[in-house]
Design brief:
Blueprint: E1 2-7, E2 16-21, E3 24-28, E4 36-37, E5 44-45, H1 49-52, E6 67-71, H2 77-80, E7 93-96, H3 98-108, E8 122-123, E9 130-132, E10 135-141, E11 150-156, E12 159-163, H4 174-182, E13 190-194, H5 206-217, E14 224-227, H6 233-245, E15 249-252, H7 254-269, E16 284-287, H8 290-297, H9 302-308, E17 312-313, H10 315-320, E18 325-329, H11 334-340, E19 348-351, H12 363-371, E20 376-379, H13 388-398, E21 402-406, H14 411-418, E22 430-432
Bound molecules: zinc ion.
């Protein structure tokens, strides 16, 4: 089996990994590079489609050995965004989970997006093996900040390659990582692991962080703004608990409310009852901003929208109840906050500086805007990625013959910890697994 990291071997973001066995070829992820931020103006430049596209034989044109499939680990643009940049060869099957497809379809219908996902997505399910040419692939659920995120075990020619996608062991789905370790996959020949946060040996868990925020919130009389991507379902769940414990409202828009409803309903379809906020959550409120208006226009979600109506509140309600609101914000949210809210006294802004690794255009401007509002700034250390201690646990548990770091600015950390087993590849370099 051969491993070629087309992108992501030497940078964070834009992942694309090819596996070859005989004439069979598959791709794992096809991400867009992260937007570049100007260090002086802090303005981030959107990634052009041209910058996202990779020149891989068979990806757009014909090839004697066609690519059988593109398998997406999760719906952060740095892992699937390039798929939307230009239609790929229609002979390539695209694989996602059903929840992932829904999240992308809803997101691409929002006004700032306007991209298109190909039709005919194939679904995989956690723990269910599927076969593509000479490959047998098993998806494993991971703990990460996307609505759902997967690792893949890929078997062929008696060899096993394990690709982590993005993961952590300190979030709401920490159990998923425990199960991943507990699963006996047999000897692993190569572990392709992310290392976005490899420079941090150990940090607090999301539960620790939330407990600290709760203690801080007790006698604050202002709104809490929290930087939280719409599809960070795990953080939304944590914020819902925080709202309940501190007798506050969790204020979302129609886009986030729709994602929560869809994710919950699709999980229920497979017999899983997710502990996430929904339209039944008593203290959930939906604000009537542009994103909510946009959801109203999506005729395929009319039924969900009608169930959202009793939860919808206008700007006067928000201004009157500001002191009791927890408001998740994301890139460009300052556009509506600025227009509707004038009083920022006693408020707090919770964010993580790791957001600079976000793939959302405009995130840097949004961070700067909220930081400039005189709110109490509460940096959040916990992020969506593994601390190095989690990577150590993974290596100790799976005992791979080779370790291929991707998505990292700290390859040296890997060589220092794991020595000769580490293969630092260059983008496009072929690694033959003997
Ligand atoms: Zn991710």
């Amino acid at each position: 089996m051969k491993i070629i990291v087309h992108r992501g071997a030497q940078e964070i973001g834009g992942n694309c990994i090819e596996l070859r066995s005989g004439k069979s070829r598959i791709l794992l992820d096809y991400g867009a590079p992260l937007p570049k931020t100007d260090p002086v103006t802090h303005k981030s430049a959107a990634v052009t489609p041209e910058a996202a596209i990779l020149d891989i034989p068979g990806l757009y044109g014909p090839s004697p050995n066609p690519i059988l499939a593109l398998i997406i680990s999760h719906t952060h643009a740095s892992h699937y965004g390039a798929l939307l940049a230009k239609p790929i060869n229609p002979g390539i099957k695209v694989y996602m989970s059903e929840i992932m497809e829904d999240v992308v379809r809803i997101t691409t219908k929002m006004p700032r997006d306007g991209k298109k996902l190909p039709v005919g997505i194939n679904y995989f399910r956690r723990g269910h093996k599927f076969i593509l040419g000479r490959f047998v692939i098993t998806p494993f659920l991971m703990d990460h900040t996307a609505a759902e995120s997967f690792a893949f075990l890929v078997e062929s020619e008696g060899k096993r390659v394990l690709y982590t996608g993005d993961f952590r062991d300190h979030g709401n789905k920490a159990n998923a990582f425990k199960q991943f370790l507990a699963n006996d996959m047999g000897p692993i020949d190569a572990l392709i692991t992310e290392g976005s946060q490899a420079d941090v040996e150990k940090g607090p868990s999301e539960i620790d962080v939330m407990a600290e925020i709760e203690a801080n919130l007790e006698d604050r009389r202002g709104a809490l703004y929290v930087m939280c991507a719409g599809q960070n379902i795990n953080l939304l769940a944590s914020l819902a608990f925080l709202a309940k414990n501190t007798r506050r409202y969790l204020v979302v828009d129609g886009y986030t409310a729709l994602l929560l409803e869809r994710v919950k309903a699709l999980a229920q379809k497979h017999g899983v009852d997710l502990k996430i906020p929904s339209l039944e959550t008593e203290y959930l409120r939906i604000i009537r901003n542009n994103a909510t208006q946009r959801i109203y226009q999506l005729t395929e979600y009319t039924e969900t929208f009608s169930r959202m109506r009793p939860k919808m509140y206008g700007w006067d309600w928000l201004r009157d109840n500001l002191a009791r609101c927890i408001i998740p914000v994301r890139a460009n949210s300052q556009l509506w906050v600025e227009e509707q809210i004038q009083d920022f006294r006693h408020g707090a802004f919770l964010y993580s500086d790791w957001e600079k690794y976000t793939d959302e255009d405009g995130m840097q401007e949004t961070l700067e805007w909220f930081k400039g509002k005189g709110l109490l700034a509460v940096p959040m250390p916990s992020t969506g990625h593994a601390y190095f201690s989690a990577i150590r646990k993974l290596v100790e548990n799976k005992r791979p013959r080779y370790i291929v770091p991707v998505n990292t600015a700290h390859p040296d950390k890997f060589t220092a910890a794991f020595g000769k087993r580490v293969r630092l590849l260059k983008n496009g370099e072929e690694f033959y697994l003997d």
